[in-house]
Amino acid sequence: MFLVANLIEAFAKILDVVLSLYTWVIIIRALLSWVNPDPYNVIVQFLYRATEPVLRPVRRWLPFGNFGIDLSPIVVILAIMFLQYFLVPSLSQLAFKLRS
Fold it and tell me: What ranges do the domains of the chain cover?
């Protein structure tokens, strides 16, 4: 059973790192939206391709689309924080219980 516990613990740690990195990608994307970046830049294209599939459904769901302020990065970052504060510790605690 310790193998399953270690697998769950490793998944929780990797998930935490991936969520943190994705948060920074969203923050950089939001900061880039304040300036007019070159749309043909490889980094800008990567940032748009990495974040748009997550931000687009949130934009459709939010009622504030006509005000000129995109609040979808904030909503997505809050959802990521929820996952980091709820799911990651829950997986770690599950791994701990499986070990004992």
Answer: 2-99
| The pair of three-digit structure tokens given for residue 100, joined into one six-digit string | 């004992």
Q: Where are the beta strands (DSSP E) in the chain?
A: none
As a whole number of angstroms, the distance between CA 14 and CA 44 comes to 25
Q: pTM score, two decimals?
A: 0.89
CA-based nearest residue to 55, from 36, 84, 33: 33
Q: What is the pLDDT of residues 23-40, one digit of tens each?
A: 999 999 999 988 989 999
Tokens of 96: 């701990």
- CA-CA distance, 65 to 21, in Å (whole number)? 26
CB atoms within 10 A of CB 40: 7
Grouping H, G, I as helix, E, B as strand and the rest as coil, residue 43 is helix
